[in-house]
Amino acid sequence: MTDVTGQGVPEESSGRCRREGRPDRAGGVAAVEYLVTMTTRVPEGTSEAEVDDVRAREAANSRGLVEKGQLLRLWRPPLQPGEWRTLGLFAAPDAERLEQVLASMPLRVWRHDEVEPLMPHPNDPGPDFVGGSVTGPEFLVNFALVATDGTPSRALEDATAAEAVRTKELAAQGHLVRLWRTPGEGRALGLWRARDAAEMRTILGSLPLTPWLQVETTPLSEHPNDPGPDRD
């Protein structure tokens, strides 16, 4: 079993198979998932009509990427006044192909992209898993395992085993949507759903490894071009 950050006892003991990516609808090639932070800055003097035209072409292009299985989700993170930023979940065989996909998007002419590769996590319920009918906003949560020097190994082993059980329960309830490992030792990213921020804090507090985790939660708002969770 493995904890929420992807660390722990060997994965083979969990009884779950490690996924090495997801099929690409376009060619049947195993694809890697990526979280892309897209920040758009429209040049001064750009007309409203030009912005509207690019927005319309972006929406049409996004629909095409969804049909190809390359664009999985889109969200709005919290924004400052005048800020234009989007979070996207993409799938591509490799970073080079992802760059081609991002470059094909009309807004790229005004946009800067930050790419984070997402690696398979043994506690991930998977893109096709259907949990309970939880309604409410979604949240992205970054986890980092803090130094555990001085912690009895048995305590961490017990917490790690309980973590795998708890994440499975939360997925069945519909609270845990996806879970990935991210670059860096002891780091992970989860996509969660809860009624509100207070319930999200309660859920995270119920994780057995909470005493050893640093947690950063980003509330997500709907994006007009998001294909929705049913298209993951």
Give an overview in words.
There is one protein chain. The chain has about 230 residues and is α+β, with helices and mostly antiparallel strands. About 25% of the residues lie in helices and about 30% in strands. Strands 1, 2, 3, 4, 5, 6, 7, 8, 9 and 10 form a 10-stranded antiparallel β-sheet that branches. Residues about 10-20 and about 25 have low confidence and may be disordered.
Class computed from helices, strands and strand pairing: alpha+beta
Helix content: 25-40%
Q: Report the β-strand fraction as a percent range.
A: 25-35%
Termini distance?
25 Å
Quaternary structure: single chain
* Low-pLDDT regions: 9-21, 23-27
Biggest β-sheet strands, sense, barrel: 10 strands, antiparallel
What is the typical, i.e. mean, pLDDT? 88
What best-fitting shape do the alpha-carbon axes yield? elongated
